[in-house]
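dumping this here before i forget
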Amino acid sequence: MLREHIARIRVGPDGRICRSERGNPINASTWWQVWHKVRAASLAPEQLDGPLMVQPYCLRHAGVTRRLNEGVDEATVAAWAGHSVEVLRRIYHHSVGGQDEILIARMDAHRRRSLWGRIGDGIRHRAASAGNAWHSLTSP
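structure:
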């Protein structure tokens, strides 16, 4: 969407991609008017009194937090946000939550794979040393 906008409207001489109809920088008051309209159209009435999307910067915070909670690695999220990993951890450490179940499931899956690998290797080894084919142990 951004590339389409730049191709259609072009970047201004000062490098800005959003300008007024006359090509001037957009006033802060205009941004706020538009932001409040977007917020009102985007949130449920009961959410409007809360802290969601109070200012445009909240979208950046929400995007970083979402990516971290979706499991994107810290180094990638930090690079996308223009942070170092240390800054990312300092700012967003409180935002990453609800990961316990995901991480425990990953550890359990790894443990099961590792355990089955050891058990499976032992069965195959014993079957081979006894002269039995592996398929005879697994077929009904």
